[in-house]
């Protein structure tokens, strides 16, 4: 992947970023004194740039040669090392120049540093020229490199895994049928278990799924109790219930047994615990009944590869020639689903049978002791090598997350942008380009979708364990990144450009330096002071850092040296105990994301206005969302004084409203996502005027003040509304649905809570016309007695939630309404005694969830069960006489 490194470096050399830093310094301190010196440095940069440009076309194919002893592979490695050196030289100088005080006394230092950088660039330029000449000595041209890349057997990267690897058909297929399984149980959980999963994390995940419908306070409870108490809570909850729990990818029988004994009771109610593992020893110890997943037969293998290969058919037809090569390719995959899935993603981008033949010929592997896994490895390597350069480092970056972890789409996008892994494209923001890259990696089956929203948009994903192991090896070999678990020697990290810490109790040696490090991330609630004693970050040489993620650590104050990191783009302090940031925050001029979610902070330094590169600001303190009750101090008034000068800000979540804020927020015209709470009725006019200026707004959350009672949200005069709006959350009383809702053609998700709209202003009439609406929640939103869904309304709706409409006695569904509705939730509608009229019209409904509904309503649903037998999952959640939640299957 040296091509990716060189192209990224060319982008740096081709921009005026370094020149702008120099120009600012020169204007204020040097005048015209050093123009010749500056020109000399610029000439050296241009010379290096020309040499690197001449290598790119060769690198595009030579980079695919995997034999580490091959002369071409050695040359590729040398190019990568020289590119890294140049990048370090340029960024070191930029950081130094940014730290100068722009005083005339700095002239000598500047000239000395400029002379030094010129000499270093000359040496590297000479080295690059030698490497370039060496390529000619090898007498390899682009075509030769292509031939080698296609014909060579790839290196064996994965070893010592004893069981056959299964993917897609075994794993995802089970998930697809989970609705059919769940309907036989009162509660269910699917939990991934990796080597890095702590017992508390495991139990928290289990509780989140098992208590999902009933326990509105579970999030807060889980975060404050210890593992044994939480295990006991789960055990008590499950004892009277029939449950099914999937423990996915178990690696230790002892670990699993301890968890099962503590949390999952054997209650003689037909409950089931299903364990998946790649380790035969684990299966033999834990399981009473063992099922070995078989390889796919030729028919199923052909179905799977064609499904993957023809997803984006563009008019292609499965001709005899395509079919011939499909059979030849799957014969080399030996029925291994992971291999078939990966190669199918690759074939989807090849439009002719001849290209399929070339892919087949590249799968030329040799037998070894781990035949099945080796073959998967070869297929995956072919898929990785076909990735365009702009996707390769994006893919490798995903291996830095813990094994089996759920990676949130938005978080990854912001990290990719901060790391400089995303190219600019005309007419698109960097975040939009990053999302396109993510979709392409998913389409190529390199990443697995874990969760989507109601519109099918990715919310989270994960990396298959086998794919991740391969990516980890590639990333470490190329010095792209290292994952540190504490068991390795710290010296492995010295040359890493990105470091991911997956340990809680290791201390780095004071003798280690990491001068090239660009990214430092800590996963898990690590003891930061133990990892890095005071002054340690300086001794490690973190001066070129672009990303610093300390989420969930015990850190209480940010080390002063962090604010000298000129290159820093991403500072993540989410869930830490940090109470304040110093005024020196202003020195982080390149910062793009500042994440202070759930910290102990109450205000921001006014100098935050100096951070003109800031795009995403998260300053939301804990709020019990389901009760809409503010628990802790929200940022407001003077604490936000500098924010209104951040013209490029795209995300601001969450602040407290005031007359001043309602007016000033209109300055943030680039806003994409805004959350504001404590809105008073009198703020409505100014807020509407401000929001009207946010033409690019995609997500808006507004919560009315609730002291002493929920106030009105006056939004009628909003004009023009943000036409690109996709998600809208409104919590507060409303006189009716504003007429401008008719223009929200892109709105996909809508929550109306505590709206208490009068009967004469039935919201369904307006909302039913929204063409893209996929999710609708109405919680205490309507005071009428009847909800009538008119014909042909809600054409795109997938999920409908009706809650706490205390006067509602009738729901009428006319033909053609909600043709794609999959899930219906009805909660605490205490006067609703009859099932919805026209319920049979919901032919696509898969799930009906009833919570705290009258017994009369439940009995009539039970009696009419035959009328909607197509609904696989029908449950009623209620509290018994003892106050405990019970799930009733209907």
TrEMBL record:
Disease resistance protein winged helix domain: residues covered: 400-471
GO BP terms, alphabetized: defense response to bacterium; innate immune response-activating signaling pathway; plant-type hypersensitive response
UniProt domain Disease resistance R13L4/SHOC-2-like LRR: residue ranges: 517-875
Gene Ontology MF annotations: ADP binding
UniProt entry tagged with the keyword Signal: yes
Protein origin, superkingdom: Eukaryota
Keywords: Coiled coil, Leucine-rich repeat, Nucleotide-binding, Plant defense, Repeat, Signal
Matching Pfam families: LRR_14 (PF23598), NB-ARC (PF00931), Rx_N (PF18052), WHD_DRP (PF23559)
Listed CDD domains: RX-CC_like
Domain Disease resistance N-terminal, first and last residues per copy: 8-104
Residues annotated as transmembrane: none
Domain NB-ARC: 177-313
Annotated coiled-coil segments of the chain: 107-134
Region forming the signal peptide: 1-18
Family indicated by similarity: Belongs to the disease resistance NB-LRR family.
Entry protein name: Disease resistance protein RPM1
Organism (species): Acorus calamus
């Amino acid at each position: 992947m040296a091509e990716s490194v060189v192209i990224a470096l060319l982008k740096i050399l081709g921009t005026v970023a370094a020149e702008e830093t120099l120009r600012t310094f020169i204007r204020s301190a040097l005048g015209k004194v050093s123009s010749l010196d500056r020109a000399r440095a610029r000439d050296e940069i241009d010379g290096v740039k020309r040499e690197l440009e001449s290598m790119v076309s060769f690198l595009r194919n030579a980079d695919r040669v995997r034999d580490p002893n091959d002369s071409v592979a050695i040359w590729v490695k040398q190019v990568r090392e020289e590119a890294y050196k140049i990048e370090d030289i340029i960024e070191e100088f930029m950081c130094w120049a940014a730290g100068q005080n722009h005083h005339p006394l700095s002239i000598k230092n500047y000239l000395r540093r400029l002379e030094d950088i010129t000499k270093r660039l000359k040496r590297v330029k000479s080295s690059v020229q030698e490497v370039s000449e060496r390529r000619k000595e090898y007498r390899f041209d682009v075509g030769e490199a292509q031939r080698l890349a296609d014909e060579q057997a790839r290196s064996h990267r994965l070893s010592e895994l004893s069981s056959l690897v299964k993917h897609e058909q075994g794993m995802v297929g089970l998930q697809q049928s989970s609705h059919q399984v769940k309907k036989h149980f009162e509660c269910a959980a699917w939990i991934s278990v990796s080597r890095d999963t702590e017992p508390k994390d495991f139990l928290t995940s289990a509780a989140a799924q098992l208590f999902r419908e009933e326990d509105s306070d579970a999030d807060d409870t889980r975060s404050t109790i210890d593992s044994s108490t939480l295990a006991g809570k789960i055990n008590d909850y499950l004892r009277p219930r029939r449950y099914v729990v999937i423990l996915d990818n178990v690696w230790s029988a002892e670990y699993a047994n301890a968890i099962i004994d503590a949390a999952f009771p054997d209650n003689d109610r037909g409950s089931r615990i299903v364990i998946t593992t790649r380790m035969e020893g684990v299966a033999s110890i834990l399981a009473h009944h063992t099922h070995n997943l078989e390889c796919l037969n030729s028919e199923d293998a052909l179905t799977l590869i064609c499904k993957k290969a023809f997803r984006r058919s563009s008019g292609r037809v499965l001709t005899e020639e395509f079919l011939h090569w499909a059979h030849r390719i799957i014969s080399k995959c030996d029925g291994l689903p992971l291999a078939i899935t990966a190669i199918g993603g690759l074939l989807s981008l090849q439009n002719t049978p001849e290209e399929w033949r070339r892919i087949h010929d590249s799968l030329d592997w040799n037998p070894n002791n781990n035949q099945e896994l080796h073959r998967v490895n070869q297929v995956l390597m072919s898929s990785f090598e076909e990735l365009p350069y702009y996707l390769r480092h994006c893919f490798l970056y995903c291996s830095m997350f813990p094994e089996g972890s759920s990676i949130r789409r938005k978080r990854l996008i912001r990290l990719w942008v901060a790391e400089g892994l995303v190219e600019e494209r005309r007419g698109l923001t960097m975040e939009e380009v990053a999302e396109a890259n993510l979709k392409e990696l998913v389409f190529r089956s390199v990443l697995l979708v874990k969760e989507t929203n109601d519109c099918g948009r990715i919310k989270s994903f994960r990396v298959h364990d086998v794919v991740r192991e391969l990516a980890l090896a590639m990333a470490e070999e190329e010095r792209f990144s290292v994952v540190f678990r504490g068991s390795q020697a710290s010296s492995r990290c010295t040359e890493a450009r990105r470091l991911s810490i997956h340990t809680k109790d290791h201390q780095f040696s004071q003798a280690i330096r990491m001068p090239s490090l660009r990214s430092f991330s800590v996963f898990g609630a690590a003891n930061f002071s133990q990892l890095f004693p005071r002054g340690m970050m300086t001794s490690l040489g973190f001066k070129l850092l672009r990303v610093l993620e300390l989420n969930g650590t015990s850190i209480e104050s940010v080390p002063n040296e962090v604010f000298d990191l000129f290159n820093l783009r991403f500072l993540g302090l989410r869930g830490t105990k940090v109470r304040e940031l110093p005024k020196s925050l202003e020195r982080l001029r390149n910062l793009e994301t500042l994440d202070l979610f759930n910290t102990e902070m109450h205000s921001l330094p006014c100098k935050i206005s100096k951070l003109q590169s800031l795009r995403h600001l998260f300053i939301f303190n804990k709020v019990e969302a389901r009760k809409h009750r503010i628990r802790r101090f929200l940022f407001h008034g003077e604490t936000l004084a500098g924010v209104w000068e951040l013209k490029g800000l795209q995300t601001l979540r969450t602040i407290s409203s005031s007359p001043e804020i309602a007016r000033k927020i209109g300055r943030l015209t680039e806003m994409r996502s805004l959350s504001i709470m404590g809105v008073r009725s009198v703020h409505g006019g100014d807020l509407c005027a401000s929001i009207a200026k946010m033409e690019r707004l995609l997500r808006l959350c507004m919560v009315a003040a609730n002291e002493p009672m929920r106030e009105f949200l006056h939004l009628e005069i909003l004009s023009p509304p943000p036409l690109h709006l996709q998600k809208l959350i409104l919590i507060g009383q409303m006189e009716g649905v504003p007429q401008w809702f008719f223009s929200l053609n892109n709105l996909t998700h809508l929550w109306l809570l505590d709206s208490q709209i009068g009967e004469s202003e039935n919201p369904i009439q307006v909302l039913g016309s929204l063409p893209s609406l996929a999710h609708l929640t109405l919680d205490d939103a309507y005071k009428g007695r009847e909800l009538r869904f008119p014909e042909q309304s809600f054409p795109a709706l997938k999920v409908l939630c009706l809650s706490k409409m205390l006067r509602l006695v009738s729901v009428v569904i006319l033909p053609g309404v909600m043709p794609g509705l999959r899930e219906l939730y009805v909660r605490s509608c205490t006067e609703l005694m009859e099932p919805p009229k026209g319920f049979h019209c919901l032919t696509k409904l898969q799930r009906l969830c009833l919570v705290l509904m009258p017994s009369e309503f439940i009995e009539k649903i039970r009696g009419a069960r035959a009328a909607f037998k197509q609904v696989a999952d029908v449950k009623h959640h209620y509290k018994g006489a003892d106050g405990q939640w019970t799930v009733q299957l209907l």
